[in-house]
Amino acid sequence: MPKFFSGLLAALLMLTATAGYAAGYRIQSGDTLQVEVLEDPQLNRTVLVLPDGSVNFPSLGVVQARGKTAITVQNEISKGLSAIFASVPTVYVSVVHVRDVLPSSVRPDPDNIYVMGEVKQPGLIKTEDDISILQAIAQAGGFTRFAATKRVELHRINTQTQSEQVYYFDYKNKRGISGGFRLRGGDVITVPERKLFE
Q: Are 69 and 24 within 8 A, CB to CB?
């Protein structure tokens, strides 16, 4: 069987296996999604749905996912990527991990830190220890080869004003906040994709 058709068959089997589970499920913050682009496997990745309900995807930037089904997000990514493909690409989105559901009276664990984007293991980091931004990136498996290491962002919510503060970490040139900058619960580290000549 040609490679293309065996790959297509595998993707269809995976989609069928997850369809029953994900068909009516509405994505929530804290869920983990697997995104696969049949025409360009380099775009395949696992993404975490951030507290604001968004995911970050190469060439598209921020994509809102919370409250939508996997099929809806799949169609939106496919439509968005069509601008850089000769035809509309075939995209599969599946929910590979559902956040732990807590009663509304229970507050989320304040020690949770999120790492997303171009790291090898994006997702939730649970730690009881004081941890730095560099340690969190290391726990997430380190940077991928597509990482824009000069433009790492740390997003933090000011609990008093409920406004978001963004700190910049330039790992390559040692600018912005230092690698030893201490994190706190609720922080989100975003590692963007490197631009073509960056």
A: yes
Q: CA-to-CA distance for 39 and 60, rounded, in angstroms?
A: 16
Q: Are 156 and 177 in contact (CB under 8 A)?
A: no
Tell me the pTM: 0.51
Task: Specify the DSSP class assigned to residue 101.
Answer: P
Domain residues of the chain, as ranges? 3-97, 112-191
Nearest in space to 136 (alpha carbons), one of 63, 186, 99: 186
Which strands form 188-191's sheet, in the order they lie side by side?
123-126, 112-117, 188-191, 152-157, 164-170, 175-176
Q: What is the mean pLDDT of each run of 10 residues along the chain (198 residues)?
A: 44 41 71 88 87 86 89 91 88 79 44 85 79 93 91 83 83 91 89 80
CATH of 3-97, one of 3.20.20.105, 3.40.1130.10, 3.50.50.60, 3.30.1950.10: 3.30.1950.10
DSSP classification of residue 198: -
